[in-house]
Write a structure and sequence with these properties.
Helix content: 25-40%
Radius of gyration: 18 Å
Number of domains: 2
CATH superfamily of the largest domain: Metal-dependent hydrolases
CATH topology of the largest domain: TIM Barrel
CATH class of the largest domain: Alpha Beta
Structural class: alpha/beta
Shape: globular
CATH architecture of the largest domain: Alpha-Beta Barrel
Largest sheet: 8 strands, mixed
Order of helices and strands: EHEEEEHHHHEHEHEH
């Protein structure tokens, strides 16, 4: 039984739930603990690394994309106590997100001769732009990604992300645990898992929607003495599709020491 969903997004990035809507959604799913892990953004209304709202434990988290020599990875920070350095890094990333979003919007509008109902802002991601494309044209959300704004598509603009080393440094100073997110979503899973020698956690449970060789993650957990985490990566209203049982959450809670 899932009691802790440690990978959830809100309207601070590309999720559909506001922070206030997370506890009711968690209760609906029977989930007792939720890590709010928005992309490259902190939650200013959470007043500590761990808080309780309406009977649900909220863990302040963040998902930070970083660059390695061969691929981009996502790091999950849990139990955030924001430092000035992390705040500054998040603001730099958001500034780039606004600039990148404006360029993608301009390219799409020029290509389709439409006006998109979306504006550059903090937290703007390609899912927001894809929804706007679907609203303003004959493209669907998915076809907008596949044909217009996905990687290597005509309206795609890459965004700047910190190096793996920089990401690890700012997260380690501010978080109780720092782990690798969804290892099987990267082109080279083995190379991604090898980076766990600099981390203290890894996302062991995740809804890939396909069969994966979880023994590779289990081997990394043993080799690098990692804390296994997990979550649904929820962007919608349903939480707890994947996550931790009581025993696994107790291990995370002990490691967080908050």
């Amino acid at each position: 039984m899932v009691v802790a969903d440690l990978h959830v997004h809100t309207t601070r990035s590309d999720g559909t739930l506001s922070l206030d809507e997370v506890p009711p959604a968690a209760k609906q799913a029977g989930v007792e603990v939720v890590a709010v892990t928005d992309h490259d953004r902190l939650q200013p209304t959470l007043d500590g690394p761990v808080t309780e709202r309406d009977g649900v434990t909220l863990l302040h988290g963040i998902e930070l994309r970083v660059e390695t020599e061969t691929q981009r990875l996502d790091l999950l920070g849990y139990g955030v106590d924001p430092t000035d350095e992390l705040r500054a890094e998040c603001e730099r990333i958001q500034r780039n997100r606004r600039e990148r979003g404006a360029r993608i919007i301009e390219r799409v509008e020029d290509r389709l001769s439409v006006s998109l109902p979306v504006e550059p802002r903090d937290g703007l991601g390609r899912p927001h732009i894809a929804r706007a494309i679907a609203e303003a044209s004959e493209y669907t959300f998915q076809s907008a990604f596949n044909e217009l704004i996905g990687d290597d598509c005509p309206c795609y603009v890459p965004r700047e992300v910190p190096s793996f080393e920089r990401g690890c440094a700012v997260l380690s100073d501010a978080c109780g645990l720092v782990g690798l997110a969804h290892p099987f979503r990267y082109p080279d899973t083995a190379a991604a898992l090898s980076r766990c020698d600099s981390l203290n956690a890894v996302e062991r449970w995740y809804p890939y929607g396909r069969a994966v060789d979880a023994s590779l993650v289990d081997d990394a957990i043993e080799r690098y003495d990692l804390v296994p985490t997990g979550g649904s990566d929820a962007h919608g209203e349903t939480l707890g599709n994947t996550g931790l049982d009581t025993t696994a959450w107790n291990r995370v809670e002990t490691a967080l020491n908050v």
